[in-house]
């Protein structure tokens, strides 16, 4: 059915008509798409956000708001490069350079073209109604030059700077990994060899005994050659032990952890260690020549939970260490290159990979006899978000946007730092779920400066031309500005996209010293690409967006962050009014989906196996704050719990409407005067639903809206309205009442199809089209509800009716009396109900009368007499014949002859009437004889 409808939409240009439906409207719904990474086919997790995106655009489109319906593809960055590298079998950056940057970048372009096309097709399958011809691409010139402008403004405001710092680094990708990119899920449980290593105290100005050794513990032995200091906590208690003829110093509380169980010879406070000189274990290497080692105090860094209370400090290989080095004026010993290979000056370590050969270090330490103990140590260790390689730390020059500087451009708010301004802007946004605000603020409070450079190839070419003579740098804000300033290489660049290697040909003159300068080779963080889109894609009168939605675990640090940063720098305002975040999609057992663990579900597979409507319904009914467990069992549950009930309700209607040859035009004009209490109630209940759905969707709460639709369809429509109306249709029904019922039912179903259209575009289309004959439900207007039909009192009374009915049914159940067995009387107290409502109870619980007696508890008289028993038998026979008719494949209106063993004579006429039986014949077994 879904495939047929897709074809219909295409053939009849329904999407085009939908996109243009409100072109002339004064009201706008400004949706801004967070670009999908065009690097692989869609997984089912992508469909969660895309369902939300489609849902609210449809809702506002049906309400008559103009929309832009622009999808975005995220196309630049390491994620694409790594996949192309894999295809080419490349191991590192040298392979790329040998291959040719131009060829490599062109392959990256081809890859994103391929996958953006595939994702477009998949999105259409999801019934995602977008202006697919007009998707934006972050690799476009427009997007890249918009970022150039942003960076130029950053520079004018004094935020942009080149930093020399120790940063997390992926040795495979050969690039810095910014703090933004290290997410909790990039920490893996890894077992490393941790080592307790001895450092011999050097007799210096603060005289101590040269027989003494400081015991240091590290989980990253490869950083030991960069050791320049040992940090202690001046307030902790330390002790000296004599072990194998050597005096070992360690914090008292941690001695046991190092395997020391004896009593210390002497104890003292850590402050007595501060200032001591000690001998490095790699001092014979050229790189360590003239490097002094000493004990320093660092209260925050030294803890008593693990280690020795003496912390190895290597400013060349640790962020905190680097900071300490600045404060303490320590040497910074850089030891590895961009592939984590020891650089020159490290003796026979040079040229060896530091991460891959941990034994190299142990061998060296063994030669010096300074290993105290080696143990396996399992910890959560950060890995590259792209290739899962374990990260290292190294000192590099990278470009940053400073968070704590005030703008050099004078304006009203220039007294505030960028961080402070961003926090204010963040508070202007409505965050859903509410905790989003705190998470974003928390991130903003604690984050470092924004590292925006990457030493890679396929990405935004950072528009920074740095003078190698005088160190001045220029930031170019546009293609035109570059053309004007170019002194060399423009001809080689012209006609190409602003990417490496073509852009690298262009040279400009240093405005300070007039030397010819080149662009820095770095490319930009992909979050610049995604963060600029509220400027590069939204026309000015559509800014800020009304609504964005994305999975939150990563985006507080990434997309939400970069959107806010760029909007704050450029306009000092919020990029969007509302952010709806949602959690993570896991498999049914709550495990993360991975291709490698074989539990990932491809979107196409799921779509064809369980249907897009069901998938979308699973997403819509989910609490966005909680992780969604996705799988085929859950899908089947949704199908049975709701989808089939909606479908069967619709089938019930069409079957009986066809049988009665009912057409919509026949609806009597004065129908409202003849409505039964049940009709009035379902219309009141429907109105209540329509109001709830509208209010919830306006609050971006799809869960409340969809659950209300489900609750109404299952509980009110199917379980009560249809069930209590079965006698109103079919061959025995009165034609006026049947007409009223079908008319009411028709109205309910059409309204439900419209209400559910943004959620389940296919089945709603099927129902709507077949019932109304109109073009498409997606070109219809969203129901707003006729408040005159809302009758709260009736809704409440019906609740009481249904409670009473439940009580009666449970009494029957307790006593083992079938519902088909008529009983004499049901009595109830409390609120007296109208006759109409009492009649509903009478019919539903199969009693002869319902009586109200003040202040009594509901009670069912279960005494039987022969007459009741005979009637019960007749009912049972009717049920059996109806079952047999169905099995024999009889038409609803077909008259038959029935053979059966016996029946109560008093009820023969009734049995015949109820079962469309012309003749009852005695026989040993029940049998339907068809005249056809
Ligand atoms: Zn990597
Ligand atoms: Zn210069």
Largest sheet: 6 strands, mixed
Q: How much of the polypeptide forms β-strand, as a percent range?
A: 15-25%
Ligands, ions, cofactors: zinc ion
Per DSSP, the total helix count is: 29
Mean pLDDT: 94
* Alpha-beta content class: alpha/beta
Low-confidence stretches: none
Distance between the termini: 33 Å
Number of strands: 34
* Helix content estimate: 25-40%
Rg of Cα set:
38 Å
Morphology call = elongated
Placed side by side, the strands forming the largest sheet appear as 11-9-10-7-6-14
Condensed summary:
With 932 residues, this protein is α/β, with parallel strands linked by helices.
Commentary on this structure:
The protein is α/β, with parallel strands linked by helices. The chain is built from 29 helices and 34 strands. The strands form 10 sheets. Strands 11-9-10-7-6-14 form a 6-stranded mixed beta sheet, with helices on one face. It has a 5-stranded antiparallel beta sheet with strand order 20-19-23-22-21. Strands 5-4-15-17 form a 4-stranded antiparallel beta sheet. Helix 19 (612-620) crosses helix 20 and helix 28 (866-888) runs parallel beside helix 29 (908-915). Residues 170, 172-173, 384, 386-387, 389 line the site of one zinc ion (ZN).
């Amino acid at each position: 059915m879904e495939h047929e409808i897709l074809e219909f939409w295409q053939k009849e240009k329904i999407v085009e008509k939908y996109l243009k439906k409100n072109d002339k409207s004064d009201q706008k719904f400004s949706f801004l798409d967070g670009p999908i990474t065009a690097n692989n086919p869609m997984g089912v997790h992508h469909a969660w956000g895309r369902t939300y995106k489609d849902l609210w655009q449809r809702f506002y489109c049906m309400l008559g708001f103009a929309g832009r319906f622009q999808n975005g593809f995220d196309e630049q960055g390491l994620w694409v490069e790594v996949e192309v590298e894999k295809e080419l079998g490349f191991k590192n950056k040298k392979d790329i350079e040998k291959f040719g940057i131009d060829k490599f970048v062109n392959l990256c372009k081809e890859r994103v073209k391929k996958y953006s096309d595939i994702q477009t097709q998949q999105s259409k399958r999801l019934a995602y109604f977008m202006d697919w011809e007009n998707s934006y691409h972050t690799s476009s010139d427009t997007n890249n030059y918009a970022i150039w402008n942003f960076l130029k403004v950053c520079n004018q405001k004094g935020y942009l700077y080149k930093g020399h710092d120790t940063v997390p680094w992926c040795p495979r990708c050969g690039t810095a990994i910014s703090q933004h990119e290290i997410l909790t899920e990039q920490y893996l449980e890894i077992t490393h060899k941790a080592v307790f290593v001895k450092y011999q105290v050097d007799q210096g100005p603060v005289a101590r005994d040269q027989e003494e050794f400081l015991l240091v513990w590290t989980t990253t032995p490869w950083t030991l050659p960069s050791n320049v200091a040992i940090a202690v906590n001046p307030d902790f208690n330390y002790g000296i032990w004599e072990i194998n003829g050597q005096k070992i110093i360690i914090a008292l509380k941690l001695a046991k952890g190092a395997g020391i169980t004896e009593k210390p010879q002497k104890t003292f406070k850590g402050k007595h260690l501060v200032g001591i000189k000690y001998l490095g274990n790699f001092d014979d290497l050229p790189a360590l020549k003239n490097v002094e080692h000493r004990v320093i105090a660092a209260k925050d860094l030294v803890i008593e939970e693990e280690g020795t209370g003496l912390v190895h400090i290597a400013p060349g290989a640790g962020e905190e260490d680097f900071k300490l080095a600045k404060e303490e004026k320590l040497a910074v010993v850089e030891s590895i290159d961009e592939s984590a290979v020891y650089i020159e000056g490290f003796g026979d370590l040079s040229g060896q990979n530091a991460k891959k050969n941990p034994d190299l270090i142990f061998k060296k330490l063994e030669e010096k006899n300074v290993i105290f103990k080696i143990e396996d140590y399992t910890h959560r260790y950060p890995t590259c978000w792209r290739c899962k390689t374990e990260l290292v730390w190294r000192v590099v020059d990278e470009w940053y946007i400073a968070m704590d500087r005030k703008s050099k451009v004078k304006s009203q708010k220039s007294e505030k730092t960028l961080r402070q301004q961003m926090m204010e802007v963040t508070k202007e946004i409505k965050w859903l779920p509410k905790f989003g605000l705190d998470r974003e603020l928390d991130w903003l409070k604690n984050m470092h400066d924004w590292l925006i450079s990457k030493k890679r190839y396929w990405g935004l070419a950072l528009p920074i031309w740095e003078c190698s003579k005088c160190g001045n740098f220029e930031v170019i804000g546009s293609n035109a500005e570059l053309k004007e300033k170019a002194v060399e290489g423009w001809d080689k660049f012209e006609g190409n996209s602003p990417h490496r290697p073509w852009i690298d040909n262009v040279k400009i003159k240093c405005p300070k010293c007039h030397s010819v300068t080149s662009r820095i080779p770095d490319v930009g963080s992909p979050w610049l690409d995604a963060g600029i889109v509220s400027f590069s894609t939204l026309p000015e009168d559509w800014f800020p967006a009304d609504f964005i939605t994305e999975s939150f675990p990563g985006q507080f640090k990434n997309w939400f962050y970069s959107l806010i940063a760029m909007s704050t720098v450029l306009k000092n305002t919020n990029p969007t009014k509302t952010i709806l975040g949602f959690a993570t999609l896991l498999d049914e057992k709550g495990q993360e989906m991975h291709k490698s663990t074989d539990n990932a579900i491809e979107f196409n597979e799921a779509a064809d196996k369980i249907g897009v409507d069901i998938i979308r319904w699973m997403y819509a009914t989910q609490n966005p704050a909680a992780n969604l467990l996705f799988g085929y069992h859950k899908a089947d549950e949704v199908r049975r719990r709701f989808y089939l009930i909606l479908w069967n309700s619709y089938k019930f209607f069409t079957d009986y409407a066809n049988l009665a040859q009912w057409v919509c035009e026949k609806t009597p004009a004065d129908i409202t005067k003849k409505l039964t209490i049940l009709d009035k109630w379902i219309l009141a209940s429907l109105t209540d639903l329509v109001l709830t759905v509208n209010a919830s969707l306006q609050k971006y709460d799809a869960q409340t809206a969809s659950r209300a639709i489900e609750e109404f369809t299952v509980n009110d429509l199917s379980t009560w309205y249809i069930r209590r109306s079965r006698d109103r249709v079919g061959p025995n029904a009165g034609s006026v009442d049947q007409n009223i019922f079908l008319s009411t039912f028709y109205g309910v179903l059409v309204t439900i199809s419209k209400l559910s259209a943004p959620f389940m575009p296919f089945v709603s289309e099927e129902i709507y089209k077949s019932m109304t004959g109109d073009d498409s439900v997606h070109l219809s207007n969203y129901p707003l509800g006729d408040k005159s039909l809302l009758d709260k009192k009736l809704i409440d009374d019906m609740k009481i009716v249904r409670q009473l009915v439940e009580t009666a049914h449970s009494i029957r159940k307790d006593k083992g009396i079938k519902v088909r067995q008529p009983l004499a009387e049901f009595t109830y107290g409390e609120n007296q109900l109208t006759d109409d409502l009492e009649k509903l109870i009478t019919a539903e619980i199969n009693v002869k009368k319902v009586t109200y007696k003040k202040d009594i508890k509901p009670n069912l008289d279960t005494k039987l007499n022969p007459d009741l028993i005979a009637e019960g038998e007749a009912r049972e026979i009717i049920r059996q014949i109806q079952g047999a008719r169905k099995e024999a494949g009889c038409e609803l209106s077909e008259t038959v002859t029935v053979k059966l063993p016996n029946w109560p004579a008093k009820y023969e006429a009734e049995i015949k009437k109820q079962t469309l039986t012309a003749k009852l014949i005695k026989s040993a077994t029940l049998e339907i004889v068809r005249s056809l």
